[in-house]
Amino acid sequence: MPAKIIGTGSALPGLVVTNKELEQIMDTTDEWISSRTGIRKRHIAVEETTTSMAIKASETAVKKAGIRPEEIDLIIVGTVSGDKYFPSTACQIQEALSAQNAVAFDVNAACAGFLFGMTIADAYFQAGRADTALIVGAETLSKMVDWKDRSTCVLFGDGAGAAVVRKEDSGILHIVQGADGARGSALSCDSRPVNSPFARKPFTKEFFAADSLSEGSCADKPFRKDFYADPLPAPDYLKMDGQEVFRFAVRTVPKAVQQVLAEAGILPDEVKYFFLHQANIRIIEAVAKKLAQPMEKFPTNLQRCGNISAASVPILLDHVNREGNLQKGDKIVLAGFGAGLTWGAAVLTW
Ligand code: ACO
After folding, report:
1. Are 173 and 349 in contact (CB under 8 A)?
2. Which structural domain range is residue 198 located in?
3. Mean pLDDT of the chain
4. Which residues contact ligand 1 via a Cβ below 6 A?
5. Which of 23, 109, 220, 285 could form a disulfide with 113 if both were Cys (CB 3.0 to 4.6 A apart)?
């Protein structure tokens, strides 16, 4: 599958919050967070938004790729924390970049979002529907977590990463992806409930009480007379069964990586770097062990960035690329896994 990453970019918010600083505002410790996850600090959006960071990362990736925005045929953004339900983050990037010839849309595959974007772009290339794609992972998880739930809020950070991928003679060698909706409840965040005058009060005792419904002016339709006096329901926040997610990751990711390498006819020893989704250092160590590969081949930035869901793989890729550690011809693996449950792995030549 001929396609190559020709430019990368990333953007992180200016505010850095350390574990020690979190100790001052909640019942947690640097020791608890760092020993269980490896995370020591994270960037938290203040003025920045998912869209503004996505645009910044995209502008850098396009500049580094040395292409004009009009050459982009496809913009795909992996995100679960877009600033708007619509228009999509991808369409907002399109406008900001003046990439008027692109088709633009978002995908929701959580922490596997960037890998899903790569897979879709690859399929567009193979079908002859695109030559140049901008793939972005962008998240503001700090607005999705409950800052009163110490078991989740300490894990996440904000940021965006982007890559320009172009149809070429070499590059993406193989991609696999998967989903298991049956285990989706391990990691979830509900959308806003139906809250019209005709809906029963959501998530309250009254939900089940027939007498909360009374006939209003809407003929025979149930109608909540108190609807306009009620405050809007509070938004829902991210919920996670940490141990279930841990088990899923350490079982699924090594299998996906082994599968993508085997199907591409490449040995793990031939791979220079494995860029894994930055959820937790213990997950990365477990994957390294199962693949019998040294930790030096697994670059990490979760210590200073935390878990940035769909943005974590492209941000890490950009950091390693900017440090000059990727040479032409290097074989690398990218792997993402997360809510859905979803996962994806790709092997490519730099
Ligand atoms: N500070 C101090 N104590 C805490 C904190 C905190 N921030 N959070 C939870 N605790 C306490 C709990 O209350 C509990 O106390 P108790 O025993 O008195 O009840 C104790 O620590 C243990 O809690 P567990 O949830 O059992 O902790 P566990 O050892 O499972 O570690 C963790 C939690 C780090 C999330 C672990 O399950 C894990 O690594 N899971 C992987 C999932 C992951 O990385 N998710 C990231 C997002 S998903 C993704 O990106 C794919």
Report:
1. yes
2. 193-234
3. 91
4. 28-29, 32-33, 36-37, 111, 150-151, 154-155, 187, 240, 242-243, 245-246, 279-280, 282, 307, 337-338
5. 109
Residue 170 amino acid letter: S
Residue nearest to ligand 1 atom 22, measured at CA: 151
**Alpha-carbon span 48 to 14, nearest angstrom:** 8
Report whether pLDDT(204) > 60.
no
Mean pLDDT of 171-187: 93
Do 223 and 276 fall into the same domain? Answer: no
The CATH number linked to 338 is 3.40.47.10
Considering its fold, how many domains does the chain have in total?
2
Determine phi and psi for 308, rounding to 5 degrees.
-115, 30
Task: Out of 19, 43, 91, 111, pick the active-site residue.
Answer: 111
Pairing of strands 158-166, 331-338: unpaired
Q: Which atom of ligand 1 is nearest to the CA of 154?
A: 7
Q: What is the dihedral of CA 340, 278, 265, 129, to 10 degrees?
A: 60
Closest residue to atom 35 of ligand 1, CA basis: 242
Do 211 and 140 belong together in one domain? Answer: no
Buried b (16+ CB within 10 A) or exposed e, 267-281: ebeebebbbbbbbbb
- pLDDT tens readout for residues 23-66: 999 999 999 999 999 999 999 999 999 999 999 999 999 999 99
Is the same domain home to 173 and 42? Answer: yes
Give yes or no: residues 220 and 337 share one domain.
no
